[in-house]
Amino acid sequence: MHIRRHRIVARILRWYDRDGRTFPWRGISDQYRILLSEIMLQQTQAGRVLQLYPVFLRRFPTLASLARAPLGDVIVAWRGMGYNNRAVRLHSMARVLAGQHGMQLPATAEALTALPGIGKYTAHALLSSVHGRRVPIVDINVRRFFSRFFFRMETLDALRPEAEIWAVAAEQLPRSRSYDWNQALMDIGSTLCTKRNPLCDRCPVSLLCASRLVMKRVTAARRKWEPSRGGIPNRIYRGRIVEQLRTASRAKGMTVTAVGRRIRPGFAPSDRSWLDGLLRRLADDGLVIVRNTDRLNARVFLA
Description:
Elements: H1 2-19, H2 31-41, H3 46-59, H4 63-68, H5 71-77, H6 85-100, H7 109-113, H8 120-129, H9 140-150, H10 162-172, H11 178-191, E1 228-229, E2 232-233, H12 234-247, E3 254-255, H13 256-263, H14 272-284, E4 288-291, E5 299-302
Antiparallel strand pairs: 1-2, 3-5, 4-5
Helix pairs in contact: 1-11, 2-3, 2-8, 9-10, 9-11, 12-13
């Protein structure tokens, strides 16, 4: 295993030196820019982040400027990123770092995961990128690559348990260049060992892969049911609500009825209870504020 690990590491790092992706948040020491990229990359493709990362930085160039800003301004600047509750968590995190950590990211996984919106993966990514720690990182791309490489996966959608892959990642972590190793694994998983169309002929370690010759495609699974209205998922309507409030007057907001008419053509009185439920959940997430308990005059504002 030791000899095999050496071969794997050497081949993957050579591939990374030649074909690894270049991002403005890689190989830098600015902890705020690294933190911002990690939060943006949660549930958003890197190409989209590349477009919006510099836009957000122009509005909030430092952690201090982000911490001082009203939450509504941060939500407006998050436009186009989707999953707007990440903007709320990022803003909350900035204020915690300003008030309790002297604008510095903690240097332990325990302290990092105590911050809003940071789980094990993001904590390890920050330890590796900001603090130069030799720690494994497992995102969905690494999990998929290691599942296929070390275990005999008979279908493209098969994955080993996450805890098992964390253990494998820790075992495979090289003594040097651990940062580059982690970035290389994520690149291979997202560009070569993809979910639906793995490019095995381009993989630097394909001849050592346990699944290369046995993986088969499976019939696409039926999509999971999710709450919807008129065939459109509620999460889409939530995004539409925030988008309308981004362009509304910050002082006046919008009436609930006006919001309903903007997000759903043919909005009717029978839709009001459904819309009220969406607004309550958005308020619980810290994204909007609903004022006036009188249903006829209730107004909605960006938080």
